[in-house]
Amino acid sequence: MKNKIKAIRKKLGITQEQLAEDCGVVRQTINCIENNKYDPTLELAFKLSKTLNVKVDELFIYE
Amino acid sequence: MKNKIKAIRKKLGITQEQLAEDCGVVRQTINCIENNKYDPTLELAFKLSKTLNVKVDELFIYE
DNA sequence: TTATTATGTCCAAAGTTCTTGACATATTCA
DNA sequence: TGAATATGTCAAGAACTTTGGACATAATAA
């Protein structure tokens, strides 16, 4: 599963650290997800979507 | 996190077993998710959405 | 250049999801 | 009513996500 987190985060001008804080996780978690080490939980996917102002269906690309 | 899986599944007239097969998981997994024992992984959330013909953002209610 | 900030990566532990196998109850139907 | 199908639940273990701490490199700014 791919995602647009890094691109949207940069467009918003925030760091991995800031995004992590907003979502209640640590920086490494954001880093791993952006670099496709693993997918977030559904709950974190929703938090990321909310913080980045996009739908889950837009933020993640399934297939 | 709540979801509309049971309602949509029944509207489509399929069993937990059939939905499970379509999504590549076992029946207990569907049962647990419908009854809020735990949330699905993001990947399974997308599979469920695809099978039930709704967006992830519609199928799951965050907050 | 030097200091600071941001990002990438590693490891082990803790927590969550999913499976397998099984059994109980509920629902449907002949 | 009895048989078959559907749903609910349990427990142990495998697989995956997240954390905390640490260190390396990259990028930015003074």
From TrEMBL, chains A, B:
The keyword DNA-binding applies. SMART domains: HTH_XRE. It comes from the Bacteria. It holds the Pfam family HTH_3. Residues 5-59 form the HTH cro/C1-type domain. Transmembrane segments: none annotated. Keywords: DNA-binding. One of its GO terms (molecular function) is DNA binding. PANTHER family: DNA-BIDING PHAGE PROTEIN, TRACRIPTIONAL REGULATORY PROTEIN-RELATED-RELATED. This is HTH cro/C1-type domain-containing protein. The lineage of its organism: Bacteria, Bacillati, Bacillota, Bacilli, Bacillales.
